[in-house]
């Protein structure tokens, strides 16, 4: 059924309506409890979501209203997709009707040719009359019933008899495509859209998805101007052959209030580029959050959004059930825990500490030991992403340590990220995170090197970007970083000094196991030169300047 989804109004305002269609959900995706809802696939995106009945309206009667509300390019593409679908559907219906009429004409013609003459028919009737009289009453009844069903019922009546049941559970193969007969749904479905039937979309191939995600979609939709977006997420925990586990988001379409926040009190230490976005999303999803930052002024915005203020890390830990921390480097992570009024002073049996900083395995292991020695529970959970993904709640979280604590953090991880992986014992997440950032940092240096080589050889840098965007290397990361360089805009989305720190730690990780990392080592030298050119507090794409000076 072709619908418009009008998202609910929350503290952060109302989301614009978006066209979609009701489809079958994945078999292993459970319907949310509470009010009736349908699984909707949105046009112009690869996103799905459970949408409440009262948030759905028929497409055609509200089309003009919807277009006035939302004038974005992405939205117009969605409307165009709807119209294209309608044209194709209409064409298929006409073709089907034409083929049906031709088949009917051929059948009638065949029947006319095979029809016996009047004399022959009379003779056959006379011969068979005796046999019919000898038949049982049951036989007569059955013949009469079949004859009546074939002759007296109109095609419309037969279609009605074959329609899904109106009461009870629908047949399994039509689950969630059959609209329940409630007054609310009747109001929603009135109009021309009520006649549309959609085939199940579960079998459609999912674009750009990791094979571990099965048919679950993880695409990112267009964000509102202020980056306020609540994320509809359903969890699926699956064991991999390696023994790691991942909590995966089924969808990223904005539906405010879809995540049930934990009733545990949450603390958060560190409101930098990543921490700020994380805290904002925790608050949007209804978590109770107490914040602390070394520069206290950064807390003001979050206090206005409903956060509580902690005077010291120790105070935050002592008053909260689970405390997250996200700071810049190993030294900052250790100082936060072991320093004056630090985390360790607030740890008591049962208190939980989650370190989201990107540090080396030795540092995180040391922190885990001191936390556990005081009766606390520890989880490392560094995040892969940047400021924009943090703001949008689309980070990838790599966790290791206390498995029970990992599960206790599920609503928090849903709020801040699109996927989280549990990687086993403490230290594994730190190693994996350094490897991920090593690849990213090396790639960024290669991009900068290619753009400068194009320039000095008289080639167009824009043309190089256009070519790369049409090839196998095409990605959001590639396009964004190249655009930064072409526009000379190095506003930090991921600090250059931090990617250089991660490269240094990744090289040390390789040294610890006697594994060569020559590519990372070469990239590290370029970033060190960029730092010498005062690019530390710019975006990592400013490594480009190391090649032009």
TrEMBL record:
GO terms for biological process: transcription elongation-coupled chromatin remodeling. Its main location: nucleus. It holds the Pfam family PWWP. Residues 10-62 form the PWWP domain. GO terms for cellular component: chromatin; nucleus. The keyword Nucleus applies. It is found in: Chromosome; Nucleus. This is Cytokine-like nuclear factor N-PAC. It comes from Spheniscus mendiculus (Galapagos penguin).
